[in-house]
Amino acid sequence: MSFLNYLISGISLGSVYAIIALGYTMVYGIAKMLNFAHGDVIMVGAYVVFTAVSTWGLPAVPSILISMAVCTVLGILIEKIAYKPLRNAASPLAVLITAIGVSYFLQNLALLVFGSNTKSFTSVVPFPALQLAGGQLTITSVTIVTILACILIVLGLTAFINKTKPGQAMLAVSEDKGAAQLMGINVNATISLTFAIGSALAAIAGVLLCSAYPSLTPYTGSMPGIKAFVAAVFGGIGSIPGAMIGGILLGIIEIFGKAYISAQMADAIVFAVLIVVLLVKPTGLLGKKIQEKV
Amino acid sequence: MKMKMNKTAKQNAVTYGMVIAAFAVMQIMISTGHISSSLEGLLIPFCYYVILAVSLNLVVGVLGELSLGHAGFMCVGAFASAFFTKCMAETIPNSLVRFLLALVIGAVAAGIFGILIGIPVLRLRGDYLAIVTLAFGEIIKNLVNVLYIGKDSKGFHFSMKDSFSMGMEPDGMIIVNGPQGISGISRDSTFVIAVILVLLTLFIVLRLIQSRDGRAIQAIRDNRIAAESVGINITKYKLMAFTVSAALAGVAGVLYAHNLSTLSATSKNFGYNMSIMILVYVVLGGIGSIRGSVIAPVVLNLVLDYFLRKFQMMGSNVVLQFLSDNRMLVYAVLLIAMMLFSWSPKMIQWRERVFHRNTEKEAQ
Questions:
Q1: What is the pTM (predicted TM-score) of this model?
Q2: ipTM of the assembly?
Q3: Is the pLDDT of residue B363 over 90?
């Protein structure tokens, strides 16, 4: 039974990684950059919900909506101020280092605004846990909501990208920015939209992450953020189903590693997965191979 | 051509001279007693920060790849050398000889890790390389935290679980104690040795950059495919830069370990945050500018750590108080501003316009 319990908590953690990884993978697909600050947007989202629920006394759903709105604006602002001026920079390192700077900035801003002490996050899903097999198998309500949210988001996002005009514009921009512009697509707006969607998803991920692991500090987002990037690479960067599969597999690997190998080495195991994937199949499970042009 | 060589030599001399001058000023201040104990305590950290920044600049500025695992190599150097010092405390009583050997061991250990990690990692580029070096840095930190090594009459014992499972004799001594790390390291780092190491680091890095090998490394940075097509062995030169950088980070780690009596790997000293700190120094000093990497760590620490704290003690000023309390926030804003200023195509155009206007005036 403990195996099943671990499996379920692995899938639950993995679903959170998957939601974060979707943000990474979309931004990477379109802006061709690793948005290091994505993990910290998660933290900001969680803090907004925390403030809305515990300080303003709002119910869960409006709090989450406010948090999504704040993160959306934040994501767009980050892109406009920090990343857009460097889009055509001579070195690809420029935007990467700036992204690290933004991540660092958000962490320290949160430290300034909210302080360094750990906030205990109250779960936004106040339903009782589900007991199966005579109480041996417990599935918390957060787990169920997380997994459902992940599935809904993946389905919704796939439909959005394949069926709507803005979604098709995203695909076009990720294929070829110049050609997309010639076809009358507003490239800047499409990139902003991508950051907006990614950041709104980050807010949801932040709430779910902190509902399952209820300790919130300014550094809460950075490790899950990096692991979600690992998940995105694992599944094949740029691929939405890949991000989901990668995220869930990584969550399972992490929880099993923690349970059966060593609790302190769980992070090392996750990173070892990344290294193995990049060496054996750098395009990930579902990624496309990109030919390099001279 | 001869002109140019002279210019390079002059530039190098300025860089070395700067370090020696700073050292001389500090020595005079120490001997005349005009130095506060808090500043004196910062002298050795200045030196290892400079070594770290210069060595990271070799990878970021000269090789053109972003490594986020630099603190990991520092960690390897620190632990390898501290382990050596702890084991040899009785065998080699002369602290200078022991420390010099520890330096060699730290550098070699970090260099070996550099090669081992470099071989798989350097097949990647850009974002992937950055994240994988970050991963390796975290793995090193994690591994050190579960490492237990003890020594007794029967020899060395090793475990990755806890200190009891090593099964030591009662006379045994735990040397590496998991998350508690190594304690009771003899504090062999001195300011003089540290400055000599800074000069040595500068010598190695500048010689490398200005040699044939260094030009090959820069060619790879500027255009990998063109470099490959003129017969430059990409893997060899990338690995060379990466390994030298790792070994020098190991030297910084040795200085770090022997400046404190207790060494443990936390996210603050050997984790991702430290790697970012070093990157901030490199970026603010100027990517690719070795002299900048010498100046930036010292100036930033001196201004933000030392002077602000001093002003704060003299009288409270809201702005200064804010700056000294939120040093990291200042770093972050400086980092972003610096990147936008020096890399944004629009800013480069603007700067060229201003610069050209100046040269025109000079011509008139």
A1: 0.88
A2: 0.86
A3: no
